[in-house]
Amino acid sequence: MLVYFEGIDGVGKSTQISLFNDLECVKTCEPGGTKLGKSLRELIFGAHPSSRAEIFLFLADRAEHYEKIIKVNKHKLILSDRSFVSGLAYAMASHENYDINELIAFNNFALQGDFDAKFVLLLADEALLKTRLKKRGTSDNIEARGINYLLSVQNHMQTILQNLKLPHIALNANSDKNALHKEIKKFIGI
Q1: How many angstroms separate the Cα of 151 from the Cα of each of 24, 33, 63?
Q2: In Gene Ontology terms, what is a biological process of this protein (predicted)?
Q3: Which of 1, 26, 123, 154 pairs as cysteine with 78 (C-beta 3.0–4.6 A)?
Q4: 12 labelled binding-site residue
């Protein structure tokens, strides 16, 4: 089973994945889950690419991640920090005039048509987001776009999951991490 953890920066995706230490599973992330992905991540967050170039860097990472991590481990439980839903949401928040169907087609190509997964969406309000980002300190060029941008990304994530009818659960990131973990385990059936 493949489970993607989604949400904007600071909602606790990594924390939730780390709580699955009692299970044999593959833990990974986008971008940066492969050797090539690590290099692409540096370009995405350090080089300030144009909006369209950023989309293609994320797609390159996604294609490599699918080929080298997801596809070869399909017989295992895979927990991934982010997915194509993030890619679509960040692109749409950056430029509302992008054609969502075109972006979905690009992602379909990168994922070889494999959208079979469950999605855990962690949601933050403005107060939680401000607190968590302040605790983290330094921000990358995407976090630097501001709170309103990140909340717009979050709204796009919710809309994408609903419109594509992807199996998902949306949880309040303000909740206790152990209570969230219990809800997530129930949702994915373990």
Answers
A1: 34, 25, 27
A2: dTDP biosynthetic process
A3: 26
A4: yes
Q: What is the dihedral of CA 155, 156, 157, 158, to 10 degrees?
A: 60
Nearest-angstrom CA–CA distance, 146 and 188:
32
Angle of helix 84-94 relative to helix 147-163, nearest 10 degrees? 130
Q: How many residues does the chain have?
A: 190
Q: Is 8 annotated as a binding residue?
A: yes
The answer to pTM > 0.70 is yes
Tell me how crowded residue 24 is: count the other CB atoms within 10 A of its CB: 7
> Does 120 show up as a binding residue in the annotation?
no
The third-level CATH classification (topology) of the domain covering 2-188 is Rossmann fold (3.40.50)
18 annotated to bind ligand: no
**Residue 11 labeled ligand binder:** yes
Type of residue found at 54:
E
Summarised one tens digit per residue, pLDDT across range 54-68 is: 999 999 999 999 999
Task: Look at residue 143 in the predicted model and tell me its pLDDT.
Answer: 64
Q: Is 132 exposed, middle or buried (0-12, 13-18, 19+ CB in 10 A)?
A: middle
Phi, psi of 180 (to 5 degrees): -60, -45
Q: Residues 43, 57: contact at Cβ < 8 Å? A: yes
Question: What CA–CA distance (Å, rounded) separates 190 from 175?
Answer: 20
Was 32 annotated as part of a binding site?
Answer: no
